[in-house]
Amino acid sequence: MTRTALDRTADVVVVGSGLGAVAAALAAARAGRTVLLAAARTRLGGQATTQLVPALDEHPHIETGGASTSYAAFRAAIRAQYDGVDNPGGGWVSRLCCEPAAAEKALETLLAPHITAGRLTVLRQLAPVAVRKDGDRVTGIDFRAPGDERVTTLTGEVFCDATEAGDLLPMAGAPWVCGSEGRDAYGESLALPGPAQPGAVQSCTVGFVVEKAPPGETGPVGDAPPGYARWREAQPFTLEIAGWDGRAHRYRMFEDGPDGHPPFWTYRRLREGAVLGGRDAALINWAGNDYADTSALDDPARAYTEAKRLSEAFLHWLRTECPRDDGGLGHPELRLVPEVSGTPDGYAEEPYLRESRRLRTARPVRQQDLEPVPGRARAAGFADSGGLAMYHMDLHSRVGHPQSAYAPTAPFQIPLSALVAPAPVNLLAAAKNLGATQVAASAYRVHQGEWAVGEAAGALAAQACLRSLTPARVVADRRELTWLQAALAGSGVPLAWTLDVGPGHPHFVAVQLLGAAGALTGPRAAQLTADPDAPVTEPALASLREAAARLLGDPGPVPVPTPDPTGTTWVEAAAALWSAVARALPTRAENQ
Known about the structure:
The chain starts with 7 loop residues before the first strand and ends with a helix. The longest helix has 21 residues, at 300-320. A hairpin with a 2-residue loop joins strand 5 (127-134) and strand 6 (137-144). Helices cover 31% and strands 15% of the residues. The protein is globular and about 80 Å long. The protein is an alpha+beta fold. The strands form eight sheets. The chain has a five-stranded parallel β-sheet with strand order 4-3-2-8-24. Strands 1-7-6-5 form a four-stranded mixed β-sheet.
C-alpha cells in the first residue's frame, strides 16, 4: 500500500461527527491512548448541531445524577456561554435548550486539552468509503473528502463506528440489522406484528429555526412549495399530536392550549429573547415534519431531499393556514433564521436520524430489559455495565407504518457486550448502532444515551489497546472487565443508578463497581439511592460480599475479608470490600 501525507495512524480510530463520536474520542484520549477522530462534517455534534436538535432530550434526573462527569461538563460548558442561565432557550421539552453554535463550542472546549496534548487529532470532512481488513481484524479505513479523489487511510488497533447510520457495519462485514425485528423474534409489544420488517425504519426530520418578525418587517410568504397539498393532508399538518397517553394533545402557537399545554412556540425554543435579549428563535421539529416515506438508511440522499421539502411545506402551512390564537389563519411573521441554524437557508445540514443500522448480536438489548418491574426502581441489571441512560421507548412513524409507539422505561444501563461486534474483532459500536432491538434502541438514541454509549466504547477501546486484547476478551474476562469498570468509574462514569453517590463522593468507585455487580438489594432495589451512611445490615453485607466475589471472577473461596458490621455504614463496608478486591486483582489477572 502506498502511503501519502494524508495517511495517519493511532491507537484508536473513531469515525463519526456526533455526540457518540465526541464522547468516544474523549474517553479514549482520557485513558492515555492516541486517537484519530474522523468526522464527515465540518461541525461536530450531530443531533445537537448539524441535525439541529440542540434542545437536549434527557432523563428527569439529569440535573442530579445518572450521567457522567464529561456529559455534565458538556452541559456546563453550554450554560457558561449564557452566563450560567439554566435554560437559554426556555424550551419546555428539555431542561437545557440552546443554539447549535453553543453546543458546538462546548464540545470543542472539551476536546481542546487532548488536542493540545497531542493525544487527539480531529480530521473533518472525511467520509468513509472502504474498510481494509486482514482476516478477522480491521487494519484501516479509507476516507475521501468532498470533491477530492485522494484517499486518506487511517490505521489503528481498535475502531469505533460512531457514524449516524452505522455506516461502517456493512463496509466491515459486521452483522447488522435495521427496521423492526418483528414481534415474533422477542415478544416485544412495541415491535411490529409478525416477522422482521427491515424496511420499517423510523422517520427522520429536517428541522428548521424560525423567529417572529416584528410588525412591519413581515415579507411575502410566496407560493406553496411543490407537493404542499399532498403533504398537508397526508401528515396531516396540525398543532395536535398523538400523546403518550393515547389521546390527542392540542396546542396553540403563542398561548397555552385548550388542554392546558404550554405554547407550541416554546416547545423547542432555542433562544429566549426576554432573558437573553434580542428575539426568540424556535426549532420546528414536530410530527408535522416527520418524514417516513423513504428509509434514510436505504436512500439517504432521497430521504434528505424529500424530508426537507416536507419541512418547507410545513413552514408554508404555519405561515398561511395554521390556526391563530386570535381566531385567524396563518403566521406570515415567521421567518427562517440561518444565523442560528448555521446553514445558508435555515434548514438542518443533515436529517435528524432516529434509527441506525444496529449490531446483530446473539443477545440484543430488548424492550423487556428496559421496562419497569414492580418493586424495583431500576431496569434489569447488566453486570457488564459501562454507563447509564434513561429515556422512554419512543418509536416515531416507521416506513409503511404511520402509527407511533411509546412505553416507559426504568433507569437502565449500557451493557458493554452490546458494543462489541462479533466480527471484525476490533470494531465497536459507539452511537445508536449498539446491539439492541429497534424498540430498545429507541430509548438509547437521544443525546445523553448516545453520549453514554460512545463514552463506554471509547473506554473499552482504550482498555483493549492497553491490554493487547480484543474488546470481546476484555468484556468476557471478569477480571479484565473489573479493571475496565474501575477505570470508567474513576473517570466519573456511573455504572449503577445511585443518585445519592455521585462522582464527587469519596467512595464513588466502590459503590459503582459493587452496585453494578448486584449489591443493590433489599430496600435499595426499590429506590434509586444507596443510603450510603445507613448502618449495614447482615443481608446487605452478604450482598456486598457476593458482589465483591463476582468482581474477582473466582467461583471458589474469595480472599476478601468480611467487615465487622458493628457500627459500620453501608458505604464503609462497600469501600472495605472494594479495597480488598482491588488489591487482589493485579496478582490474579493474566499477564499479557
